[in-house]
Design goal:
A 3-stranded mixed beta sheet has the order 2-1-6. The chain has a 3-stranded antiparallel beta sheet with strand order 4-3-5, with no helix packed on it. The protein has 113 residues and is of the alpha+beta class. The radius of gyration is 17 Å and the shape is elongated. It is built from 2 helices and 6 strands.
């Protein structure tokens, strides 16, 4: 489960940001996870809740925003937001598409005290 190593890196990043801002605690963490990121949201949340204890994020609320897959057709230029993993343009049925969003995981915001 690589979610555990992701959470360890996320907690380190949160601690670094909190120190830079002279915060004593992190109260809320918002993360954006793309459907194609390879991260399982429920496992990530479980790992976060397990490893946050006795860190600056101990009482933090963890908010996950799931980003759907967004593709752009290189043939007709249409951008499409997809609910399912489907690398084919729904407008012209071309397979020549590029992914615009939905493959990454980002720390979007922190609330600190």
């Amino acid at each position: 489960m690589h979610e555990y190593s992701i959470v360890q890196a996320l907690l380190t990043q949160c601690e670094d940001i909190a120190k830079e801002n002279e915060a004593e605690s992190v109260t809320k963490i918002v993360v954006k996870i793309g459907k194609m990121s390879g991260v399982e949201p429920s496992l990530l949340e479980t790992a976060f809740n397990t490893f946050k204890e006795k860190t600056i994020c101990d009482g933090a609320k963890f908010v996950l925003n799931i980003q759907p897959l967004v593709i752009e057709c290189k043939g007709c230029g249409v951008q499409t937001t997809l609910d399912e993993i489907y690398y084919k343009c729904p407008a012209c049925e071309s397979l020549d598409v590029k992914v615009i969003d939905g493959e990454d995981m980002f720390l979007m915001s922190l609330e600190m005290e």
